Amino acid sequence: MSRYPFEFEHAKPFLQQAGEWIADVFYDILPEAGFEVRDEQIYMAFQLERAFAEKKTIFAEAGVGTGKTLVYLLYAICYARYTRKPAVIACADESLIEQLVKPEGDVAKLAQHLSLAIDARLGKSPDKYLCLVKLDEARGGPEYVEAYQDIHDRLPSFVNKFEAMQTFHAYGDRREYPDLNDEQWNSISWDPFQDCFVCERRHRCGQTLSREHYRQSADLIICSHDFYMEHVWTYEGRKREGQLPLLPEHSSVVFDEGHLLEAAAQKALTYRLKHSVFEQLVSRLLQNEIRESLAVLIDEAIDRSEALFDLLSRQSVAIAGSDRKHIMITERLQRDVSAFRGVIEAIEEELVFESELYTLDDYQLRIVEEHLEMIQKALGLFQQSASLICWATDSSEGLTLVIMPRAVKEVLRERVFGSNVPVVFSSATLSVDGSFDYVADSLGIGDYLSFSVDSPYDYADQMEAVAPTWPPGGAAFTDKMTAAARLLGGSDGGALVLFPSKEELQRFKASISSYSECANKRILFEGDREISHLISDFQNDEASILCAVSLWEGLDIPGPSLNKVIVWSLPYPPQDPVYMAKRQAAASPFEEVDMPYMLLRMKQGMGRLIRSRDDRGFVAILSEEIHDDSKLRERIEALLPEGVALKNV
Ligand code: SF4
Questions:
Q1: Pairing between strand 564-567 and 617-621?
Q2: Tens digit of each residue's pLDDT (9 = 90 or more) over 467-506
Q3: Most buried residue among 229, 257, 367, 462 by CB atoms closer than 10 A?
């Protein structure tokens, strides 16, 4: 196979030649294969050529139907081959990375019509893989034992049989277990409290083997924003520990749905602390021949950790509609944190002496030191409450303290945008009132290129927007259910129902079966099965209905399988600590935080409807507020494409 899809002349700049070939692709090769020539796509291609040639960050705002993915994929692939380093394509979430590589997806289209063998591999988050340690625990647990035993029995033979000359391959992907619901999967999948670095099974674990596989990609590594950010934040630490970074060196990065990157960056910078994990970690030291002074300190640290987490539990208040609990920070809590940090510091000093005595295994010592350092950093942040967002979550194994810094831009500026590789932000919604400064500033980007191109579709002809009404007062939920059932029952499927929260989806799910109009409908619910299987079922069964919380963005289903989008309620951000902190920092919280979030999400959600020139359909917004509040209605109407009016029905 030749390295480039065009005849390369060494005397001419590479990107100029790549640009000429890409222009041929859009003007000639794809139109010959039945694709239409799109001016917006060609304009975007010229803009990206400059960003790649100058190794700059570019905001590429392109409306639905411009075919922006094909443009950035072509540049990313050509440049990867030129630099001999893969490009990273980071999608907004894990469910979307599968969309790019599905048989009818954009990578397959390019491969087929350009006769190009594209090496595209998925870098999935560890929680999308089975954890052998947790599977063993679950097999001995109280529930679903048969299902877990079956999973165990179907593991590749090398997992449990130790023979000479074995070859290992990746396995244990969430997709391989489509029938497990999310709760069952969470019992056996990796979670942040698994210490893979010291796990005896890591060389035969599908999660670690998957990493070796995607690292070898020649063209593209496709991952989520979260995963890319995890790579950025753990890069130095992993290198210090002698581990490979999560992603190999890469030639360029594309952030698809790039307006969501800030949230992923904050999430990745988050620290999670748990008493049981701390106890387990330091108790390991007690199994060695250590000095008594260190043993006494370890016992004290375990007691202090337990007391601190008990206090945190008492100081945590549940938040309706969120699984994050608000922590009331008091002087007593701060005192306990200081005392705990003091003991950890004393242990760290003792470990320096201990390392000179060589009584502890070097490897084990390093793990404990890294972990203690992380706890010190996290609790240090906790003590400067003005610069962090924190919350607690509860599970059967105890409380987890979560600590997240407020500002991420300094770190991003240093580690992502200063790395001298082309960075493409691609989305239909990046600018606010025609300017990219808002998103650039939130991410710490000073110098950038940008452009906007509109969607080529005729929305006035293809789309309708309706706002069902129901009598004022009365039983709001029942009336809304009746309106939803009427919409769903009177149609032949093809409906995507979008919910702002899991709780609202669950409440809908519990009620819908009692509505006779929907009795014979096939309704699929997010959380019941693995998400890409659910999407595929929905796409392949035109009569089905899909109810989802996480598909406001990125879902791309052209054709009759998706001809209605029903917005269950306006998607304001949750009342959880992350948004509470944003509100606190804003001069006008509703206008600066809640409203822009809701409008952006609404625009994205409605954007799921028309995905090709032949698509026809309607968006229905089930909201009482837009009938009562004319200003709010105006803002929602402003989101609709030109020529589409919102009608009451
Ligand atoms: S390496 Fe990590 S994910 Fe794999 S079995 Fe061990 S703890 Fe679980």
A1: parallel
A2: 998 877 656 788 899 999 999 987 788 999 999 988 899 9
A3: 229
The pLDDT, as a whole number, for residue 437 is: 79
Q: Which two tokens stand for residue 215?
A: 């690292």
Measured in residues, the chain has a length of: 649
Pocket probe mutation, ligand 1, options 207, 211, 246, max atoms within 8 Å of Cβ:
207
Q: What would the two tokens of residue 85 be?
A: 């380093």
Per the structure block, which two tokens stand in for 91? 């999608």
Tell me what pLDDT residue 321 has: 66
Q: Is the pLDDT of residue 600 over 90?
A: no
Alpha carbon distance 323, 371 (integer Å): 26
Residue 445 to residue 413: CA distance in whole angstroms: 6
Global pTM value: 0.75
Pocket of ligand 1 (CB under 6 A): 131-133, 190, 194, 196, 199, 201-202, 205, 207-208
pLDDT digit string, tens, across residues 72-101: 999 999 999 999 999 999 998 887 788 888
DSSP class of residue 106? H
| Structural domains for the chain | 1-119+217-269+408-455 (3.40.50.300), 125-199 (no CATH), 272-405 (1.20.1440), 459-648 (3.40.50.300)
Neighbours of 507 (CB within 10 A): 15
**CA distances, 153 to each of 135, 150, 168, 199 (Å):** 11, 5, 17, 21
Give the number of the atom of ligand 1 that is nearest the alpha carbon of residue 190.
Answer: 3
Spatial separation of the C-alpha atoms in residues 314 and 117, rounded to whole Å: 58
Q: Which tokens belong to 321? A: 């509609």
